[in-house]
Write a structure and sequence with these properties.
Layout: E1 11-15, H1 20-31, E2 35-40, H2 45-53, E3 58-62, H3 71-82, E4 87-90, H4 105-133, E5 136-141, H5 154-174, E6 179-186, H6 195-199, H7 201-210, H8 223-230, E7 241-244
Parallel strand pairs: 1-2, 1-4, 2-3, 4-5, 5-6, 6-7
The structure holds NADP nicotinamide-adenine-dinucleotide phosphate.
NADP nicotinamide-adenine-dinucleotide phosphate is lined by residues 15-16, 18-22, 40-42, 63-66, 91-94, 114, 141, 143, 186, 188-189, 191-194.
């Protein structure tokens, strides 16, 4: 049974893996046997230590995904450093908060560029390789706002609804080519992304009261779903968006 989830010999590319959810995913994939490439802006020293502690090879690619300029280089450097590529975790993401009536074009474009445009074009670049090699796993990081509207985060809601859309589109185009494209939709997780919410006593209380599990999620909570979607255990899954949300959507 455990061999179904074994990632030995596989290489995973995780965008934004220096902290938060990407770090938790990188660690879980390494503990399941994968070598890890992290692409992002900050030095991923902590993540590197976690991956090496799991006995896996680690590669860092410095890249700012606010444009698609680094996309080709990320793939080239990942393969040069790790030898191959089998798994892409499209995790890098940002959020801007303001009422819809005040929302600026900059806050719209910045979020869409990182969360949706770069995620699509990285999936395209990696997907071309996966199709040529006969398979691979792409896991996009969606959100509760892939299903719901939320408040005060118009570009984020648009980007994450868009992520759900391109997950289904790419799955439809590539399932027959051996490439699995799926998404994980985290609930409310305690990372920098939700710092403002958790700092607001009223919002924080309201959110917590709605989570059936009775706590905010931790980055380690996504590890199981990530390993599952990266492994042979999910070979017949295409276009699924799996909530890991403490029951938020069930309520
Ligand atoms: P986080 O702690 O703020 O981490 C965001 C990550 O994205 C960082 O590693 C950062 O890289 C990377 N990133 C941001 N802008 C980038 C850019 N221009 N180029 C390259 N990398 C960039 O947030 P998180 O909560 O872990 O978020 C990870 C993903 O989960 C995002 O897609 C987010 O929307 C999604 N998500 C989060 C929650 C939640 O409750 N926290 C819920 C649902 C979905 P550097 O460290 O290099 O700056």
């Amino acid at each position: 049974m455990s061999s179904m989830f074994d990632l030995s010999g596989k290489v995973a590319l995780v965008t934004g893996g220096s902290r938060g959810l990407g770090q938790g995913i990188a660690r879980a994939l390494a503990e399941a046997g994968a070598d890890v490439v992290v692409a992002g802006m900050a030095r991923p020293d902590e993540t590197e230590a976690m991956v090496r502690a799991a006995g896996r090879h680690f590669v860092s690619v410095t890249a700012d995904l606010s444009t698609i300029e680094p996309v080709g280089r990320i793939v080239d450097e990942a393969i040069a450093g790790a030898g191959r590529l089998d798994i892409l975790i499209n995790n890098a993401g940002i959020i801007r908060r303001a009422d819809a009536v005040d929302f600026t074009e900059k806050d719209w474009d910045d979020v869409i560029d990182v969360n949706l445009k770069s995620a699509f074009f990285l999936a395209q670049a990696v997907g071309r390789r996966f199709i040529a090699q006969g398979g691979g796993k792409i896991i996009n990081i969606a959100s509760m706002l892939s299903f719901q509207g939320g408040i005060r985060v118009p570009s984020y809601a648009a980007s994450k609804s868009g992520i759900a859309g391109i997950t289904r589109l790419l799955a439809s185009e590539w399932a027959g080519k051996g490439v699995n494209v799926n998404a994980i939709a985290p609930g409310y997780m305690a990372t920098d992304n939700t710092e403002q919410l958790r700092a607001d006593p009223q919002r924080s209380r309201d959110i917590l009261a709605r989570i059936p599990a009775g706590r905010w999620g931790e980055s380690a909570d996504l590890g199981g779903a990530a390993v599952f979607l990266a492994s042979a255990a999910s070979d017949y899954m295409h276009g699924a968006i799996i909530p890991v949300d403490g029951g938020w959507l069930a309520r």
